[in-house]
């Protein structure tokens, strides 16, 4: 009977340790999931900002081309008038 009581106490300690480890790993997993979600959100925001910057750059390139065409046209008219 003493041996069984000793085994039972040992098993209860192992159970408590296993439960503690399970809680620890569960918390680590939840923290990793939260961090991953934050990183996904950050990446999504950065992608949106990059898309906005690319569109703005394209608009500037188009405006620049129109201005260059206007400059060339004005220069040609000026040469003809001379």
TrEMBL record:
Membrane topology listed for this record: Peripheral membrane protein
Coiled coil (residue ranges): 1-63
GO molecular function, one term: structural constituent of eye lens
Entries under Gene3D superfamilies matching the protein: Vasodilator-stimulated phosphoprotein
Localization annotation: Cell membrane; Cytoplasm, Cell cortex; Cytoplasm, Cytoskeleton
Key words of the record: Cell membrane, Coiled coil, Cytoplasm, Cytoskeleton, Eye lens protein, Intermediate filament, Membrane, Phosphoprotein, Repeat
Domain IF rod: 1-82
GO biological process per UniProt: lens fiber cell development
Cellular component, GO annotation: cell cortex; intermediate filament; plasma membrane
The keyword Cell membrane appears for this protein: yes
Protein name: Filensin
Organism this protein belongs to: Nothobranchius furzeri
């Amino acid at each position: 009977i003493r041996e069984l009581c000793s085994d039972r106490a040992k098993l209860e300690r192992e159970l408590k340790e296993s439960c503690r480890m399970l809680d620890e790993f569960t918390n680590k997993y939840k923290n990793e999931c939260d961090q991953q979600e934050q990183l996904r959100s950050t990446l999504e925001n950065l992608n949106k900002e990059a898309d906005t910057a690319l569109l703005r750059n394209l608009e500037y390139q188009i405006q620049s081309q129109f201005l260059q065409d206007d400059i060339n046209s004005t220069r040609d008219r000026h040469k003809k008038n001379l």
